[in-house]
Amino acid sequence: MSEEPQLEPGVPIRSTTVLCVRRDGKVALGADGQVSMGNTIVKGSASKVRTLAKGQILAGFAGSAADGLTLCDLLEAKLDSVGGNFTRACVELAKDWRLERRYRRLEALMIVADKERSLLLSGTGDVIEAEDGILAIGSGGNYALSAARALLRHSELDARGLVEAALAIAGEICVFTNDKTKILELEAPR
Question: For the chain, which residues score pLDDT lower than 50?
Fold first, then answer.
C-alpha cells in the first residue's frame, strides 16, 4: 500500500477517514464521507462503514469502495467457514489477501471489530490489534488517531462521543476529510 490508488495517471484518489474506539465496554466505528480525486471532491457522503454477521461485527474500509466491499464479503464468507471465530476469520482473510493472486490487487485497508477486539487488516498480511482500543486508517487517519488518544486520556466522552469529536478534529485539519460522518456501535457482553 505504498501508493495512493489512481483513476487517471498521476491523479491520486483519496477517500475516507475511519476511526474505531473502545471505551467502557462499548465500541464505536465511524467514517467521514469524502472522496477526492486530485484536488476535487467527487463525493461528500460515501458510506465506508457497515455491519457484518447480522450486526455482530463492525467493518470500515479506506481505499477503493469496490475493493472494500469485496473484502467485507470475503470476511463474511470466512466467518461462515470458521464457525464464526472472528479472530481466525480475520487471520485467514489477511493470509488469502496477501497470498492469493486474485486478491493481491485489492486496494483498501480495513478496520473490523466485534464485541471483544478491534483489528486492522491489510493486504500485506497484517492483523493488528489496538493496544489502547483505538485504530484509524485513511487520509485523515493519523489526525483522527491523535485526537482520539488525547480525548481518551483527557475527557469522559463515551466511545461514540470520542469518535464524533476525533473525526470532527480530523475534518478540521485534513483536506480529504469532511464532516458528513456515519457511526456504528456495539456493546460488549456483560
Answer: 1-3, 6
How many Å apart are CA 180 and CA 188, to the nearest integer? Answer: 27
Q: Using a cut of 0.85, tell me whether the model's pTM lies above it.
A: yes
Give the span between the Cα atoms of 7 and 154, in whole angstroms.
41
Cell numbers describing residue 163: 469518535
Tell me the domains of the chain and their CATH numbers.
16-184 (3.60.20.10)
Question: How far apart, in Å, are the Cα atoms of 69 and each of 48, 51, 58, 101, 170?
Answer: 9, 12, 13, 18, 24
Q: What is the pLDDT of residues 55-101, one digit of tens each?
A: 999 999 998 888 999 999 999 999 999 999 999 999 999 999 999 88
Q: Are strands 35-37 and 26-31 parallel, antiparallel or unpaired?
A: unpaired
Phi, psi of 38, deg, nearest 5:
65, -125
Residues carrying an active site annotation: 16
